[in-house]
Amino acid sequence: MIRSFWAILLAFGALAFTSAAQAENVPTSQRSKTEQSCFDGDEDACLSAGRIFARLSGEERAIKAREMFAQGCELGNAQACHLLIPMLLEGRGGPPELVVAAQISNILCEAGSGQGCSWQANVLARTATWGGEVDPAKLTAARKLYLQGCEMGAMDACGQAGALLATGTGGPSDPKEGYTLLDRACAAGQWQACANIGVMARDGLAHDADEASARRYFRLACDGEIATACNDLGIMWMQMADRGEGESWREPALRAFTAACDELDGAGCSNAARQLREGRGVPQDLQSAYDLALKGCNHNSGGACFIAADMRLAGEGVEVDRRIAANLARRACDLEHAPGCSLLADQSASDLSTFRTRKKNDEEDIIFSRGSGDRGHRDFAAGGKGE
């Protein structure tokens, strides 16, 4: 659970800019005039110019936006400072500048901005693990700042604080209070908080396990484009079907897995590939299954690499190619997927046998058919978490 929560420490709430269409409709001459007014000391012009540039495409525009927000912030415009900090943290429009981001965040926090406290905590959380070592003091300070930001109304800070309390990071573990804070953040549209509380509800980490609540939270998070939540939701729907609660759950499960895959979650790709390969409650589609498995492999799912390797050997939805299959099996093994290692070993043994036969008889390459038996797939119901 700690690993699934850790990602939230590197996230922060999105800020509203002028829409792209509105920005494109601003004449170039007007943008230039606003930009000049900024450099002449008009802090409101800096804010306006920065917003315009922020919504235009291209790195050069991001550089200009950051420059305008920085100028406005220096002139004392708090909103420009709020819009500048995410750019400093993310490295948009220039390199990341965590020290500067922390300094500005500290000023905003002391001035009563909960979001400023949250960003200051964010910098501490990021730097707490630099160099491969964990700095407990920084995590403790980050936790206090997240709690402070939450009390001041910053909902992303509530989600961050909830995750830290639930996992006992930066201080004593308090799952129930963590659950409460995560629920508050989720209700405010912090989708990663919804995903985290879904894990807690599913696994009974603060209160009794509640699958219905877990599915509800996962669905909220999935609709908010949290890939892992889509995968978790799909697994729970597949489990319902496996328990005999209705085959109709398998189609939405596939949609959830595919949504996770679309957001580049390798496990979601793997589960979607498996379902399409086996035709579990949906029409079998071997070509799509292979494509999804290959995509999942590219996004570090050992299970997806194994499926792709196995399908390559069998010629399912794709031409047989033992060399590609071996490479995919090796990738699965490198990702610590045990069936991939077994498949790779079987491949190596077959290749050796093929070489000896060819050397003896001076024949063309022999392609061995895949043997029957367990392909190493985990059933969705087994273990409760699927891929």
Molecular structure report:
Helix 4 packs antiparallel against helix 5 (59-74), helix 12 runs antiparallel to helix 13 (211-223) and helix 16 (266-278) packs antiparallel against helix 17. This protein has 20 helices and no strands. The model is unreliable at 1-27 and 352-386 (pLDDT under 50). It is mainly α and 387 residues long. The longest helix is centred in the last third of the chain and has 24 residues, at 338-361. It has helices at 2-6, 20-24, 28-39, 43-54, 59-74, 78-90, 98-110, 114-127, 136-151, 155-167, 175-187, 191-203, 211-223, 227-242, 250-262, 266-278, 286-298, 302-314, 322-334, 338-361.
Determine the N-to-C terminus distance: 15 Å
Helix count? 20
Largest sheet: none
Gyration radius, to the nearest Å?
Answer: 26 Å
Helix content: 55-70%
- Share in β-strands: under 5%
Helix and strand sequence: HHHHHHHHHHHHHHHHHHHH
Number of strands: 0
Mean pLDDT: 84
- The coarse overall form would be globular
Low-confidence stretches: 1-27, 352-386
Q: Structural class of the helix and strand makeup?
A: mainly alpha
What secondary-structure arrangement, pairings included, does this model have?
Blueprint (H helix, E strand, L loop, with lengths): L1 H5 L13 H5 L3 H12 L3 H12 L4 H16 L3 H13 L7 H13 L3 H14 L8 H16 L3 H13 L7 H13 L3 H13 L7 H13 L3 H16 L7 H13 L3 H13 L7 H13 L3 H13 L7 H13 L3 H24 L26
Helix pairs in contact: 3-4, 4-5, 5-6, 6-7, 6-8, 7-8, 8-9, 8-10, 9-10, 10-11, 11-12, 12-13, 13-14, 14-15, 15-16, 16-17, 16-18, 17-18, 18-19, 19-20
